[in-house]
Amino acid sequence: MRILRSSDAPALAAAYVRNREYLSPWEPVRPEEYYTEAWQASDIANRLVAVKSGEGYPLGLFADDTLVGRFNVAGIVRGPFQSAGLGYWVDTSYAGRGLASAAVQLIVETARDELRLHRIEASTLLHNAGSQRVLLKAGFRQIGMAPRYLQIAGEWQDHNLYQVVLHD
């Protein structure tokens, strides 16, 4: 796992194309352009600006040269909050192998030890048991439920809210 590079746009676009149907119940409705190298290159460029400012980290999970997962530590707020949000997915061909759990655990450790964050938050659809298991294994705890929290698959859907506190 590493920070995405501009040169990863073709691999990221290919991963989204390969996983389009698999990810569709869990993500917003995407425009057709989203699945192109040009869109992904632009998105990576924008996210790399956030890396430079310390506000986010777009991470790719790779098996050899194939991108098999995406993890985003985003919306980092410093000051008294010291918090960030986490989003992720793993390629359908690699799901269920513990890769997401290992990656999220590594992100938690890095956020605590290197980024010196106090807290990470994440949310899941109510019926996304797999993602909930990943978060719980990494030390997240459910802190509530937000009605109509995000527009996913074209509908405003309820989400369970999770957090992990990294420092006492």
Automatic annotation (TrEMBL):
Task: Write the record's keywords in alphabetical order, separated by commas.
Answer: Acyltransferase, Transferase
Domain of life the protein comes from? Bacteria
List, alphabetically, the PROSITE patterns matched.
GNAT
Pfam families cross-referenced by the UniProt entry: Acetyltransf_3 (PF13302)
Q: N-acetyltransferase domain spans which residues?
A: 18-167
Q: Which InterPro entries match?
A: Acyl_CoA_acyltransferase (IPR016181), GNAT_dom (IPR000182), N-acetyltransferase (IPR051531)
> Which PANTHER family does the protein's record reference?
[RIBOSOMAL PROTEIN US5]-ALANINE N-ACETYLTRANSFERASE (PTHR43792:SF8), GNAT FAMILY, PUTATIVE (AFU_ORTHOLOGUE AFUA_3G00765)-RELATED-RELATED (PTHR43792)
Tell me its family. Answer: Belongs to the acetyltransferase family. RimJ subfamily.
Q: What is this protein called?
A: N-acetyltransferase domain-containing protein
